[in-house]
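Sequence in, structure out.
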Amino acid sequence: MTEVLLVAGTPPQPGILAGAVRRLREKGARIYLVGALNQDELPADLGVDGLYALPEAIAKTPHSRSGLRAAPGERVWARLRREPWLRERYRSADVLVAMDAHAIYTVWRLAQRNRTADARYGVAAAVQAIAERKTRPAPSPLQRWTNGLPTSEIVRQGVSRLVQAAPHVAVSAVTARPLMRSKIGTQLWLTAVQAPRMPDSLRAKVAHQVADSMAWAGRPDGEALILNATARKLSQPAARAGMLAEAASQQLKAGIAPHDLKPAVEALLSVADQRHRVDENAAAANLLNRAMTLAFDRVLHIDQLTSPLAQDPEGFIAPFRRSLTATTVAAPRGRLQPAAPPPTGRPLRLLIATSANDNFLKLIRAHYEAHPGVEVRFVDLAANAALKKVTWAAKSMLEHRLSADETAYGAKVEERLRPHLDWADTVFVDWCVAPAALFTMIDPGTTRIIARLHSYEAISRWPHMVDFSRIDDLIFVADHIKDLTTTLVPQLQAADAPRTHVLDNAMDLRGFQIDKPAEARFQLGMVGINQVAKDPRWAIEVLRLLRRQDDRYRLLLVGGEMNPDVSIATREYLKAFHQDLAELEPSGAVRRLGPTNDVPKMLTDIGVIISSSVREGCHCGLMEGAASAAVPVVRDWPFFAGRPHSARTLYPEGWVIGTPEEAVERILTTTATEEAWRSAGRAASEHALREWDWSVVKHRFDRLILGDGQTS
């Protein structure tokens, strides 16, 4: 005789329960009933062979404090799992039956313990299981749980059936946290969301609910897996692209570089192209904006120790080069008139523009404000209410480009920028981000446009939204940044591309000439540790290796810490960094000095200045340290190592090393004696002042801004 265990997560209606028992009894089953039952309402002649009743509200009432956030199915399991009566009954059961949605999770857990039993949802499925067992031998554990998965019958008749009937109930019932964290749970739902003949609307609805449950269970990988699998089954391209993008976006929010980023970007661009072809440019702009946002997310390029842009820049940007929408945005419009030569008989009118970041402008601005041949105006677009509203409006910018430069937004830009362009002879836009895109949205007239690109912009979306045919001169801070940017932006290789220049940042390095005490010889230093790209853990590894040979060496860290709220990727790096500090700070091997407004004073005690970054433009902190006569030790920045231009071509031979071991060798050699250390420091200081001090660099700026645009 077949033994059947019925599990109720919520009290069944008496008539329905009686009918179920009768049907099972007709099949010759012994029947046991457990769960949420109202014994006062049970028929006196129910005819079960055993019964164990629990309070009716077990699905609603937490069994313990840990159950406060548990799903109803988890609460039922938590209440039943320790009952001796249940332990005795489920071991001998041939068929385990969930009477309702809240009992499914309990039956799934029981089936893991009794792997020869059939697990079913609903009485009809249980009756079928009894019939099947009479015509076949009892399944072995291997047959029952091949590859650790429930049989296809359980999935089809249980979850898939429930999904079709009541998707919200299904997901709530079978997404308990332990299930969602297991391989079984993931595969179960993958089967469900990919089931044939399911309408797109239902498939998408279930996928979103399951993905939310995966996220709740701490499974961003599972969340993306469900969404990507569902997307492949959707028939509408727009819906497919949206779900692929959502999967990638959720992984990025979790600090994970998506495995399926490229398909998501390509799908969005494909639909954007369809919309653009029929002049649905607002929709096309929205899709392109989403593709760009995903492709240039900071988790991929800023908060990691590597970047796909560094590994394969041409391959990474290829989907945008193939896209009609993206190439339309990037297409050069040109200018109606060439820029006028510098005026004679009056000062040059120079407009300096930025948006909330003038960190690298102070010396430049002061120099030209004091110059008798220049009249300066400064505009911070973030501080000007009218300009702020239009500056960072990426979607509006894209729609304007896609709409043949005829939109209401474009008219606003014209109205708000034209007075500045009419006044200026030359506009100097610092940072090649939104302000540079804004100034090139409209024809500049005869005003000369100069823009400067540091390093961050090269791994951002913004250069792909700038019309470089309306820029006369483009400044890079280093050759390796120029190489990367021109590889990524084809317009910079075109006939109407701007003149390009490499000019060092404006730095007053003479203010860093200081006398160092003898004990500074054994003190390494880093200036700036507020980004993952600075990779201070590399410097700590150098210190560990160094102290194995001489424990007099210390590491001083100058600057504010990384913000853990920027991204989960940053938070994970910071966690590991703090573990390093917990090991080394108590002994004084590492000291954090925090942020400062007096960097020269901090550098007094630093005898060796380290650049441990994975990428830099022209590492100002390193240059300042060198000017202070600290011995420079520069990691061969991995983003650019081995390329025609890199840290090795920016700095003198001997400064740049490839490994922590090589760094240790350089430090030990240059600090072997006080005389050797001071000699190496003087040489570094002389080079820094000769090449990078503002007294030298300002003449290069003058030749560009005041002269004929030539800097060499």
